[in-house]
Specification:
The protein is mostly helical. 52% of the residues lie in helices and 3% in strands. β1 and β2 (27-28) form a beta hairpin. The longest helix has 28 residues, at 91-118. The radius of gyration is 32 Å and the shape is flat.
Length: 149
C-alpha cells in the first residue's frame, strides 16, 4: 500500500521481506505466519511435559511401601470405621444449610459485577433473594434443624 492510499509505507528488500533496523546495515527478516492455535498447543505441550516430568521424578524418588502399610492416614491413628460408612442423619440439615449459603455466594459474585450497570432493580432482586434465604434459615432454626440432640 502506498502512503497516498492511507496505508503505511514499509521498506522491503528484493525478496519482499521488511527490513529490521535503520540505516545501511539494516537486515531483512522473513515473517512467519503464526496461527491462533500454535501458542495454545505449545503451552499444552509444555504443561503435559511438566506433568509427565513430575510424575517421573516422583517414580524415581518415592520410596516403595508395602500394601499393608498403606492404610488411610487419620492424624497418625488407626481409622475407627470404614471409609464408606454412613454419616449420622443430623449432618444432612447442616449440609443443606451449607449448600444454601454456598449457592448464595455463587449468585452474589456475578451480581457484584453487574449491579452498577443494572441499578436499583438488581439491588431489590438481591435483597429478595437474601430475604428468602434468611426466612429459610429462620424456619430451619425454629423447627430444630440446627439442634444437635
Amino acid at each position: 500500500m502506498s502512503p497516498a492510499s492511507g496505508g503505511v509505507a514499509v521498506r522491503v528488500n528484493v525478496a519482499g521481506a521488511p527490513y529490521v533496523g535503520s540505516g545501511p546495515r539494516a537486515t531483512a527478516y522473513k515473517m512467519r505466519r503464526v496461527t491462533v492455535w500454535e501458542p495454545v498447543l505449545v503451552l499444552l505441550g509444555l504443561t503435559a511435559g511438566g506433568i509427565a516430568g513430575l510424575y517421573g521424578l516422583n517414580a524415581l524418588l518415592a520410596g516403595r511401601r508395602d500394601v499393608v502399610d498403606a492404610v488411610p492416614f487419620s492424624g497418625g491413628s488407626e481409622p475407627r470405621e470404614h471409609a464408606l460408612s454412613r454419616f449420622h442423619v443430623r449432618w444432612y440439615p447442616v449440609t443443606m444449610i451449607f449448600l444454601a449459603f454456598d449457592m448464595e455466594m455463587l449468585f452474589m459474585y456475578p451480581w457484584v459485577r453487574v449491579v452498577s450497570e443494572m441499578g436499583a432493580p438488581a439491588v431489590i432482586e438481591m435483597f429478595l433473594f437474601l430475604g428468602l434465604l434468611f426466612a429459610a434459615v429462620t424456619y430451619a432454626w425454629r423447627e430444630g434443624a440446627l439442634r444437635w440432640t
